[in-house]
């Protein structure tokens, strides 16, 4: 059974700090990896995707992928209170279905 | 990014009634759409995968006769909760996959909050 694991948190960081969110997955054949942000009471919003080993940067966000370790992470630089949300890691292992982790709650304090 | 709409955003109904939720891809053709359910403070749970022109594929434990899915066109999928009961109260979210970009990401609709009295 394909699994995606995330620490549920909450992860608390002060404003301006770097928030580091981690995710591991069980299916070694996984090909594509996504980070979604979900505010309370809202639906998920795609913020990053990554396919290749290494880092991918987009503004304040950096996704990191290590397929050998089956590990994907999301770094948020200069964290803002508006970044406070639940971050969902999702993995695609072949067909179009995504397997989601349970999410990590991030709290950024002013 | 691709835009997915959902209607209605919120519905309150009496126990025993049926509720239809629409999911539309507004600026792309979605051959595959997905229906999720999320209970408060819980993770997303995939209910079914909807493919245009064919029967939906339901996840284990999801009653296909209770949650009817129709994907009649490349831009519209509907979920009908039949004979709804209070335990069906939840946040229902659809997503759609845009195949034109050659990627696998799903774009989510804004969700429908169902309350069954």
What would your notes on this structure say?
- The complex is a heterodimer of chains A (110) and B (117).
- Chain A is mainly beta.
- Chain A has strands at residues 4-5, 11-14, 19-25, 32-38, 45-50, 54-58, 61-66, 71-76, 85-92, 98-100, 104-109.
- In chain A, strands 2, 4, 5, 9, 10 and 11 form a six-stranded mixed β-sheet that branches. Chain A has a five-stranded antiparallel β-sheet with strand order 1-3-8-7-6, with no helix packed on it.
- In chain A, a hairpin with a 6-residue loop joins strand 4 and strand 5.
- The radius of gyration of chain A is 13 Å and the shape is globular.
- With 117 residues, chain B is mainly beta.
- Chain B is built from no helices and eleven strands.
- In chain B, the strands form two sheets. In chain B, strands 2, 4, 5, 6, 9, 10 and 11 form a seven-stranded mixed β-sheet that branches. A four-stranded antiparallel β-sheet of chain B has the order 1-3-8-7, with no helix packed on it.
- Chain B is globular.
- The model of chain B has no long low-confidence stretch (mean pLDDT 92).
- At the A-B interface, strand 4, strand 5 and strand 9 of A face strand 9 and strand 10 of B.
Unreliable residue runs of chain A = none
The proportion of residues in beta strands of chain A is over 45%
Number of strands of chain B: 11
Spatial extent as radius of gyration of chain B: 13 Å
Order of helices and strands of chain A: EEEEEEEEEEE
Oligomeric state as shown: heterodimer
Overall average residue pLDDT of chain A: 93
Instruction: Choose one word for the global shape of chain A.
Output: globular
> What is the overall pLDDT average of chain B?
92
Structural class of chain B: mainly beta
Radius of gyration of chain A, in angstroms, nearest whole number: 13 Å
Strand content of chain B: over 45%
Tally of separate helices of chain B: 0
End-to-end separation of chain A = 41 Å
- Largest inter-chain interface? A-B, 21 and 20 residues
Structural class computed from helices and strand pairing of chain A? mainly beta
H/E series of chain B:
EEEEEEEEEEE
